[in-house]
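pinging the channel bc i need a second pair of eyes. not urgent but kinda urgent?? the chain im working w is below, pasted from the shared doc
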Amino acid sequence: MLKVGVLGAGHLGKIHLRLLNESSKYELVGFYDADSIHGKKVEKEFGYTYFDNINTLIEAVDVVDIVTPTLSHFDCAKKAMEKGRHVFLEKPITKTLEEAQSLIAMEKQYGVKGQVGHVERFNPAFTAVKDLIHNPMFIETHRLAEFNPRGTDVPVVLDLMIHDIDAILSVVPSEVKDIHASGVSVISNSPDIANARIQFENGCVANLTASRISLKNMRKSRFFQRDAYISVDFLEKKVEVVKMKDAPEKPGEFDMVLQNAEGMKKQIYFENPEIKSNNAILDELETFADAINQDTTPEVTLTDGTRALRVALQVIASFDL
């Protein structure tokens, strides 16, 4: 079992602590939080060992799980990597691209592994259809959330939209060509609602909308590709897969057949991929343990996290154009 320590015991940090404590692949050594009063309160309430010194905790573990505010990601990861510790970083990977690129260099320099917590990669609805998504040419995403003061210190792009940016980058086999975006601040000092149109070099276009001031929650993505339409509901963990194939010469009574202007006939049919229930956060943490133990590439690498951050920052930068 890998010895693990958690940095940060906020809302998400406590979830990580609970799951790591339950995992058969980790031994939870303890946690550190900059707020000692809060740290001791969490220790008393849940029984996890609180370390009042970050360096002492890093020395005692094999893996450091960083669930602190984004501003401190780089400093925490740097401390851990310099001690030869593997690091799991919540998204976004860091505040700046320069910091992210430095972590990629340090990962190689110190011979450690890093993974970024883009948890939607492990959503059972997405994993059920990911292998069916081939060269999509139009993508539309909506990630809407009811207002929550937590997280409003950063733009909605880094808070919410970056989930969809990462998922899209994982299935589009092309580099980004151009980005146009707009954002509006309604309650916060940073944009609360944003829309981005991302064009890829291969012709694919992705239209993303994110809001944290909605009346209801929604996390849906739609992928359109040659002869197929795939819809993923990340919130309800449901999928729709609609495909087309050449129609048979003698269609059945209940076959759905379309004919275009050129006379070509296509049959519409539905696929129902199995959606396996899981805990996505536990899965991402345990696949990282597997990558360390088996010396394989993590599911979401530091390079993946950096690509998502780069596009997210480009979206934010285009607000002022």
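so DSSP finds nine helices and 15 strands in the chain. and The first helix runs from residue 11 to 22. — does that match what u expected or am i reading it wrong
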